[in-house]
Amino acid sequence: MSDQIKKIVIVGGGTAGWITAGKIAAEHTIVGNSDSVQIYVVESPNVMPIGVGEGTWPSMRETLKELGISEAEFLTECDASFKQASKFVNWGANVSKNNEDIYYHPFSLPSQFHEINLAKHWYKYRDQVSLSNAVCSQTILCEHNLAPKQITTPEYSFANNYGYHFDAGKFVPFLQKHCIDKLGVTQVLGDICGVNSHPNGDIKSVITKEFGDISGDLFIDCSGLHGLLLDKHYKIPFLSQQQFLFNDSALAVQVPYKDPEQDIASATISTAQKNGWIWDIGLQSRRGTGYVYSSAHCSDEEAEETLRKYISPSLGKQEQEKVNIRKLSINPGHREKFWHQNVVAVGMSAGFIEPLEASAIALIEQSAKFIANQLPKNRASMEHIATRFNDKFLNRWQQIIEFLKLHYVLSNRTDSQYWLDNKAINSIPEQLQTKLALWKIQSPYNYDTRFTEELFPSASYQYVYYGMGAKTDISFNRKYELETTKAEYLFQENRKITEQLLKVLPSNRALLNKIKQFGLSKI
Amino acid sequence: MGQHQIVNNVDHKDIKINTVRSKEFGDNIWYSLTFVEEFRAIQAYYPIFFQKDADTGQFVPVSLFGFQHEENLFLNDKGWDAGYIPLSVARQPFTIGTQKKVIDGREQEDRILALDMDNKRVNKDVGESLFLEFGGNSDYLDTIADMMETLHNGVNQNTNFIKCLTELDLLEPFTLDVQLNDGSQYQMIGFYTINEEKLEQLPAEKLADLVSSGYLKAIHMTMASQGNVAHLIRRKNEQLGLA
């Protein structure tokens, strides 16, 4: 056993496997130099990737850029579009009677977020304007289906922060080709039927039917629900989170556009239903929708009826009856730890929670980034890095669970047992209960995040908390008084910028068509 | 969008084109599209930069006449004060169009000269005639036709030139800082220029390609043209009485 970590074997080639391969290769592999880190992706020729979610966070821009991918090529080949926000409809926000039950969680931070907490100053205007409309331009631009940039804006740059919606079925082969052709990753098409261990319990090699033993110094388990290494081999316990987040089933369906030039939405639209919520994602060539629900509260038949009702206005009754609905099961939760011996799990083999706020791919990116940045030089240093990884990612799972739960607990919906159960005190993680108690007297801000590189900035908590119409007893102190002029100036400035952007930004559709024709400049 | 007609000696028998250069005719522009073909003439008077076309995001070379919207420092009471007028300006009010024709069963594209009848330069009293008394082309019209041909080829040549520059990573963003004699400053963003450092580091075979395509010459003329910024500043200072 060589002490150096030189050969990395990634087990499984879905979204998780190829993003991880790409990120590590981009940082470590020198193509043509066999002394540099070598990466092997072992994927079954027979297993089709699940293709979790089609929404990403803005972090995907950084990921693609690091991998040396042309943004225009990615957008065109993966049927991708720009995602600038999540839009929540009918979540039971406590809004005044005249207002619609709609709010946004935009990707852009409130202006000068790190200098001033504008939410405090917005609070007195809460009956006139939503927080997101007061502090950034993105929400209004989303309502107009506008793009986050212009054709003259260099690739990966923006007027408003954005991630993507894409066709996961196209993204995986696209990424795979790039990793193999450009980044020196080796693909092994083989079915894994066993593992060989070192005396210390580390994995020495995985056994494939087609190519025999494939040895490695570090193994990354990206085998998704198959859980080949961390689950089946090491039997690391699974921690269910269903007591907090009830959704364990999903029905997915693709919806064509009525007209190929139909507007493409700038946000993932999430519409709450009686026993869950429906996602609606606009790609270039079609929409992807699906109902995520709790099987304890709702039968599959009832769920299907709800989903069909949602899509029929855009399809017509006849077309609606023809569509093919796919059922997916979700087991909400995660492993007790993710890095064990010389194996680290990334993606669904580590855990999975319902797709609200699309955290799955973001978590893959963060895990891959951590492994790439902190790649152990030798076996001895691996223990410390594994401990660090486990601490960090346990915390991240906890954050995701709390943040997703926040969307449910503030709802004033009482139309089903599902919504009532969601507000039951024993269904709310303790840390979230503490936060909710605090937010009644102080607005969410920078003390609400404990670590650097947080998954959700405190601005996200603000957008959801106040978007749901929750209240804070804002205390007026000297600092508040001193900041008032600046806050008013920033509100005014935001209105001006919004007006300007409304005039110059093209629609998502128009920009994507142009990018297809002309590409995007690097500078 | 004006009304465009195909130039012909029946409809346009009496048409004259006023070639006076003035604000009235829309010559108060601060930059215009230029072509590799005319870089040699352009760089004698104007700085050449690159800009992104607002409609396509593609780089195009432009020659600069002023520092702000509607400022052409070459324009005065007597006309356009320079020994060469850029093609994209001189061609006004003509445009080039294409017409599909079937010759021997094969579809061919013919270029045709069109005239924007709504352009103020088009009249029947003042300026250059398009046709001679008995219907033959005037020298002016022949010159214009040649110009349009150059322009048509120029568009393709520009595209190839830009493609070559971007592939070699030779363009870089550039902010033009201008200070006038009274200390007032202008900052112009959105321009791109040749990255000289990258040019110097090009491997020999790439440089050889640039020589054989003729683009190295165009690159050097672009770089040399930047000296004309100083002339623009001089004109601006004179105009403001700061000279």
Question: How far apart are the first and last residues' alpha carbons of chain A, in Å?
Answer: 47 Å
The coarse silhouette of chain A is globular
Q: What proportion of the residues of chain A is helical, as a percent range? A: 25-40%
The total count of strands of chain B amounts to 13
Largest interface: A-B, 12 and 14 residues
Largest sheet of chain A: 7 strands, mixed
State the end-to-end distance of chain B.
Answer: 41 Å
Structural class designation of chain B = alpha+beta
The largest sheet of chain A has its strands arranged as 5-4-14-15-16-13-17
Q: Extract low-pLDDT stretches of chain A.
A: none
| Arithmetic mean pLDDT of chain B | 92
Overall structural class of chain A, as computed from helix and strand content, comes to alpha+beta
The total of beta strands of chain A comes to: 21
Note the overall shape of chain B.
flat
Oligomer: heterodimer
